[in-house]
Specification:
alpha/beta, 2 domains, 6-stranded parallel sheet, 3-stranded antiparallel sheet, binds adenosine-5'-diphosphate, binds the ligand Cc1cn([C@H]2C[C@H](O)[C@@H](COP(=O)(O)O)O2)c(=O)[nH]c1=O, thymidine kinase activity, P-loop_NTPase
């Protein structure tokens, strides 16, 4: 029975790597798949992992229709057993519904990967619809950590190390330390709520309360 699965977690927790691993393993057993992505950091029409793995991918833009695309391929004699959909948080609710239709009407496995919430701890449209429609959601087991050592659960957007809460929801970027430009930092809920990034913690907290060697580290 085909399924619509959503593998999710914070930024930097291994989602793109898992997406490429799953494509590899299904292909190794003779299954035919397609890879989709949207706004990958490495550029258009590519799925990239921080581990250095990359793969060609079909770029999902606002007007992209998964149902039309797949039916067109099948009509031309193509075979599709599964699809890997990275950065699914950026897909529209309608596109998630098209993916669910692939599962229900064409028995195609759909594996989605993405972050749940944006820099304001608000669900992305694609993630919200996946929460509503997915057969299963799986939290990735590789844990990204907050600067305090707790498991990171939220994604902060920073400028010069300071957390910001204003701006567009979509802003492609990466986890970087000492960035003067816009960057992201994964935090535990407590420190996301307090807007306490590593830079601010180092500037304001005494070394004794900081883990991993205190302020100097
Ligand atoms: N040099 C490295 N050595 C080992 N693991 C690494 C290295 N760089 C990144 N990683 C792993 O890759 C993960 C990020 O992988 P990636 O697939 O890009 O994550 P996501 O797609 O969730 O942002 C990190 O959590 C870390 O576990
Ligand atoms: C929190 C947040 C993130 N993004 C962007 C930043 C990255 O380009 C991707 C997530 O990529 P990853 O593979 O999970 O690291 O999403 C954004 O546009 N808006 C946000 O609020």
């Amino acid at each position: 029975m085909a399924e619509l699965l959503y593998f999710t977690g914070t930024m930097d927790c291994g989602k793109s790597t898992l997406a490429l691993q799953m494509d590899h393993n299904h292909k190794a057993r003779g299954r035919r798949g397609r890879i989709f992505t949207s706004h990958d950091r490495a550029g258009e029409s590519v799925l990239s992992s921080r581990l250095g793995l990359v793969a060609e991918a079909i770029e999902v833009r606002a007007e992209f229709d998964f149902w039309d695309h797949v039916v067109n391929e099948l009509t031309q004699g193509g075979r599709i057993d599964y699809v890997v959909c990275d950065e699914a948080q950026f897909y529209s609710a309608l596109q998630i519904e098209q993916l669910a239709r692939l599962v229900d009407e064409l028995q195609i496995d759909v594996f989605c990967f993405g972050i749940l919430t944006d820099f304001r701890a608000t669900l992305f449209p694609g993630s919200a619809r996946l929460v509503e429609l997915a057969d299963r959601m799986e939290l990735l087991q590789v844990e990204a950590l907050c600067w305090c050592g707790e498991r990171a659960t939220h994604n902060a957007r920073t400028i010069g190390g300071e957390m910001v809460t204003e701006g567009e929801q979509l802003a492609v970027g990466d986890i970087e330390s000492n960035a003067t430009e816009m960057a992201y930092e994964v935090l535990c809920r407590r420190h996301h709520r307090r807007r306490l990034t590593q830079a601010r913690a180092r500037a304001t907290l005494s070394p004794e309360v900081l883990p991993f060697g205190g302020a100097a580290s």
